[in-house]
Amino acid sequence: MNSSVAFFKGKFIPYENANLHITTHALHYGTSVFEGIRGNWNEDKKTLFVFRMKEHYDRLLEGCSMLMLDIPYTSEELCKITLELIEKNNFKEDIYIRPLAYKSEELVANLKLQDLASDFALVAVPFGLYIDSNRAINCCTSSWRRIEDTMIPTRCKIGGHYVNSILAKTEATLSGFDEAIFLTQDGYVSEGAGENLFLIKNNTIIIPPVSANNLSGITRDSVIKLAAEELNLTVIEQNIRRSEIYLADELFLTGTAAHVTAVGSLDNRKIGSGDVGPITKSIQELYFDCVTGNNSKYINWCTAAN
Ligand code: PMP
After folding, report:
1. What is the atom index within ligand 1 of the atom nearest the CA of 35?
2. Coil, strand or helix: which one is 274?
């Protein structure tokens, strides 16, 4: 089934009525901050588990502060609105929740943030796999470099950023790859177009620091904890060169939409065996148990929505 209810301009209204005027500031200038949150349906427990909802809203509000988006809600209130929306839509399947805070002022030619109205909207839609995470995907190094924090703050999900990601993903998929990997202006590995990156070499996990202009990912944070606490792996944050990926034992990408997705090749060079590696597989299984509410130790990461 599709969504029937959206939260728009402070009210729950029919989904098809949640529309904006053509002159809305955010539509012209990318002046929005959004989130992607997953709700995972657990058929045995007949429950929809929303994963790390509060952390997503904390990141949304950080982005709002960067973009001077004044919305009248705390993270806790946003969580409550989300649970109410899910209840009203009566979802009994995996869903993707999309909160959006945006400059809602209706006027053209105004290149500033202050003294412009802001608003918040929320929709949720049924959602399956974003990338086929059951196999190892093939990536290319993007010819587009990742935007720098000196250009637009990169650690939160600002709408305008995504032109950068979309250019990279378009180039990659039109060339027959599944996903693009960005380098920074300095040539260090940053992240995927919509995922953070994890490299495994000699049983150690190496990840680019957030200062390599990647998004401060919530899946990244979850996987760092699971790898260290459950698999006893050392996780090191350090700058990575593209050639280190070619020589890695395993590589995987993490994201709310992408879950934990193994990468089998970069630029047509096989990584490790070219298949889902053993450490990646263990992390995928652990992560999947957590997001579906099946791991009691990490159940506080989940909010039961119905
Ligand atoms: N990087 C980018 C550019 C993204 O869009 C996403 C998806 N939100 C991620 C990384 C992963 O972040 P998260 O695990 O919080 O979804």
Report:
1. 8
2. coil
